Amino acid sequence: MTRQERRILVNKIIMLLSTAAALAGMLFLFWIIGVLLYKGFTALNLDIFTYDMAPPGREPSGLRNALVGQLMLVLGASFIGVPVGVLAGTYLSEYGGKKSRLARLIRDISDIMMSTPSIVIGAFVYAILVEPIGHFSGWAGIAALTVMMVPIVLRTTDDMLQLVPGSLREAAIALGAPKYKVIIQVVYRGAKTGMLTGILLSVARIAGETAPLLFTSFSNNFYSTDLTQPIASLTVTMFNYATSPYDDWIDQGWAAALILALFVLGANIIGRLITRTKKGNR
């Protein structure tokens, strides 16, 4: 066998192994999705959205308090995290530059926070908010989700704003526009699609988190909108129900998992569609 024939043989073997690994991964992925869809839709009914949690074996029982709590936590974190992330990303791109020590430090910290396990962030917020106060609360859960959301929005905003051509800024400045108007009316308009995609992906990320909420907002078996007290969330409820020995709770856990999966999938699809629309308009 010549050297060229050996290289062709090795290439075919590597391609065969890579294809087999990809097919194995796809098989398990479709298996998980199939089980989730089957058991989730089987357990899904109108009571899930209209009734609160009930003890095992008691009807009707639903997840209304968990859905409302989850919505409040995600909206609260988005209300704080999106403006902070966008403004910080704007500073990095428009004022900090690439050579500023402060800008480089913020970028490095953001990269570290994006790769930090969520349970570590939950433990951190527990130490500074839950332990001193003495009890879990919805605000602590919002703080934990905000800490996770800010670096994603920040880095996305920074990257998208840097893609806006400098000639647009120079043209606007040449026309006499002040710096803040250049940013708001020129730079933001050029990068709004990418920024919105990053925000949607960050919302999808925090909506599926369980670990930080176990340390902060914990859970609540009753309907509550008081953020100063423990509050129910869909992810923690799903974890508790899935690990319980009761069949009806396990079924509701599957329904909660399906609702979360559909929400995250919907956010990702919207983000992809926005990105594709922008490419199509170019």
TrEMBL record:
Signal peptide as annotated in the record: none
Keywords assigned by UniProt, alphabetized: Cell membrane, Membrane, Phosphate transport, Transmembrane, Transmembrane helix, Transport
The keyword Membrane is assigned to this record: yes
Protein family according to the UniProt entry: Belongs to the binding-protein-dependent transport system permease family. CysTW subfamily.
Protein name from the UniProt record: Phosphate transport system permease protein PstA
Cell compartment(s), UniProt: Cell membrane
Species the sequence originates in: Hydrogenimonas cancrithermarum
Segments traversing the membrane: 12-38, 67-92, 112-130, 136-154, 195-215, 254-274
Name of the encoding gene: pstA
Keyword Chloroplast: no
Residue span(s) of domain ABC transmembrane type-1: 67-271
Membrane topology qualifier: Multi-pass membrane protein
